[in-house]
Design goal:
Blueprint (H helix, E strand, L loop, with lengths): L7 E4 L5 H17 L13 H10 L1 E7 L2 E9 L3 H4 L6 E9 L8 H15 L4 E7 L3 H9 L3 E11 L2 E12 L7
Parallel strand pairs: 4-5
Antiparallel strand pairs: 1-2, 2-3, 3-4, 5-7, 6-7
C-alpha cells in the first residue's frame, strides 16, 4: 500500500509481534488514564493473538519516520458479531495509534487505509463493532461515515468476558474502490 500523508502502511510480519502487543497495551493504558473502562486492558492480548489473526486475516502497520505509528486488524469474516454473511465486507478490529508519536487525525488516516484495502479486495462494505458503552468512540465512527446497523450483546472476547457492541457499517463508494 502506498504512503498515506507521511505514513507508510504495510502488512505486519512475525518480527512485529512484540511491537503490536506493546502498541495495544499502550493504547489500553491511554484509555484507562482517560476513564475509558471496560474496553481494553493491558496484558489482555499476547503475540499469539496477533499471530492467529495474521494466519486467518490481516494485521497492518503504519510507520512514520521509521517509528510504529499505529496498526489495525482486518478480518474477512466475523461470525461472532455478524453471524454468517456473504463475502461483501471487510471487518476492522483493534484500530490503534501510538499517541506519543503521531499527530491528531492519524486514526482517521489508518481507517481510510483499511477502507482502501477492503475495496482493493473487491468488497463493498467495511464493518466494525464498537463497544456499546463507549459513546465517544461510537461518535468517532459515526463522524467517519459509518452508520449503526445493529447491536450484539455478549460477543466473546479474547482474554476477557463477553461484551456488548454497536455494529457499524460503511458502504464504500466508487472512489474507495478505485
Amino acid at each position: 500500500m502506498p504512503s498515506t500523508t507521511g505514513l507508510r502502511v504495510r502488512p505486519a510480519a512475525e518480527a512485529d509481534l512484540a511491537a503490536l502487543v506493546r502498541l495495544r497495551d499502550d493504547a489500553a493504558r491511554w484509555m484507562l488514564a482517560r476513564g475509558v473502562t471496560g474496553q481494553w486492558r493491558p496484558g489482555e492480548l499476547d503475540e499469539d493473538h496477533f499471530r492467529r489473526v495474521m494466519a486467518h486475516g490481516e494485521v497492518w502497520l503504519a510507520q512514520a519516520g521509521g517509528r510504529l505509528a499505529g496498526a489495525w486488524e482486518l478480518w474477512w469474516e466475523d461470525e461472532d458479531a455478524w453471524g454468517p454473511q456473504p463475502p461483501v465486507a471487510g471487518y476492522v478490529h483493534r484500530l490503534m495509534v501510538d499517541r506519543t508519536a503521531t499527530a491528531p487525525g492519524t486514526g482517521r488516516l489508518l481507517l481510510g487505509a483499511a477502507e482502501r484495502r477492503v475495496a482493493e479486495a473487491g468488497r463493498t462494505r467495511v464493518r466494525l463493532d464498537c463497544l456499546a458503552g463507549n459513546a465517544q468512540l461510537n461518535a468517532y465512527y459515526l463522524d467517519a461515515g459509518y452508520r449503526v446497523v445493529g447491536h450484539k450483546a455478549g460477543k466473546p472476547q479474547p482474554g476477557g468476558a463477553p461484551k456488548s457492541f454497536t455494529l457499524m457499517e460503511k458502504q464504500l463508494g466508487q472512489a474507495a474502490r478505485g
